[in-house]
């Protein structure tokens, strides 16, 4: 039997990643909760806000958020009832539809964003030098592209701009 030591750096790396994610999520939640948003709601809204014309095909939104097709439908249904998102038909494919951020949705994101960015700075990015952050982001993208290759579906291409 092949015995793997419990101090294997692979276990340490994965354990640290899980601890950091849990800790950061806990620190980010108060700002989201105050705004009446769940982590999934905010993740959906910020993805739309960062996309061209503040909209994404529903399938691309599902891929980016890591939700199933039915899961993203439920989130968009809820956000639509709250007036934060609207559905739009695709002009070229009647089977497809887009989720688009409404003005109210954009206002909600802009309401939450200052505190959210402050929380990120205090608990995460502000702890790293610019060089460390650049290296960290590069490393995360390498891993993300393997474990979640659809995460950039519908994202802004280099040279494109997102309308303010």
The helix content, as a percent range, equals: 55-70%
Query: Which CATH class?
Result: Mainly Alpha
**Sequence of secondary-structure elements:** HHEHHEEHH
Task: Please state the oligomeric state of the protein chains shown.
Answer: single chain
Which consecutive residue ranges, at least 5 long each, have pLDDT under 50? 157-164
The class by helix and strand makeup works out as mainly alpha
Number of strands: 3
What is the CATH superfamily classification?
A: Winged helix-like DNA-binding domain superfamily/Winged helix DNA-binding domain
**What portion of residues belong to β-strands?**
5-15%
Task: Give me the CATH architecture, please.
Answer: Orthogonal Bundle
Number of helices: 6
Biggest sheet, spatial arrangement of strands: 1-3-2
Q: What is the CA-based Rg, rounded?
A: 18 Å
Give the N-terminus to C-terminus distance in angstroms. 59 Å
**Could you name the CATH topology?**
Arc Repressor Mutant, subunit A
